[in-house]
Structure of Diaminopimelate epimerase:
Amino acid sequence: MEFTKMHGLGNDFIIVAGETALPDNAAELAVRLCNRFFGIGADGLVYILPSDNADFRMRIINSDGSEAEQCGNAIRCVAKYVYDTGLVGKTELTIETLGAGVQPVRLSIESGKVAQVTVDMGEPILNGLDVPTTIDANPVLGHTVEVEGREFKFTAVSMGNPHCVIYVDDAVGFDLAAWGPKLEKHPLFPRKINVEFATVNSREQVDMRVWERGAGPTLACGTGACATLVSSVLNGLTGREATISLAGGDLRIAWNEDNNRIYMTGPAAFVYSGTLA
Ligand SMILES: N[C@@H](CCC[C@H](N)C(=O)O)C(=O)O
């Protein structure tokens, strides 16, 4: 099996292209190959597949074997992969995802290679039951989730996949491992949830750290950065465009007032290619 290791701001993936469908053992493969001691090591396994509705289709399996509906960092990696390897020659293309439909993607090219990718991430879903949460409100703003006697105020946003954004005094120093797993699996969130801890430093810049559903602490989360921007606008904390600073680097996120869509801009990078015996 041929694979390529890529990352988006340190959120790393094993990319497999050339298959026509997701293999039946994709979950087992993801768990085995994503293992950082006994496998290749990655946050997720990503398949680039043919699509009837778009230029390509992407499927992503988290490192615990669960399938995610969408992944912002992976979609940028897929876009760079298909352009830099010559599978596509145009700089505007479409990629179909499981949970967010067909997403338009624009590539910025430097020296013949993709340097930055802007993805139209679609409209955020704010209705609590659709995120999903068990809360029948639209939006879910200022509700609290209780874990071991500590109450966290959160905003719930789906970008095709579910997110819960919590503001803390120091996102950079926050103890992700202590609270992330308990929030991810809290009964308020029927399909589990990605948890973003955020600190707003100005109306243009937010620090964010993430505990990902099915993958644990990762260096970046594209959909999480989009959810954080949406939450920050809804809470009156930032303007509609801001830099979200993650452990692995910065993403620029904009929420367009006219069409209600979210645009994410950031890099993607190759690490190496290999063959799995
Ligand atoms: N890292 C991602 C999100 C990956 C999926 C997530 N763990 C989930 O289960 O929803 C991103 O960059 O968006």
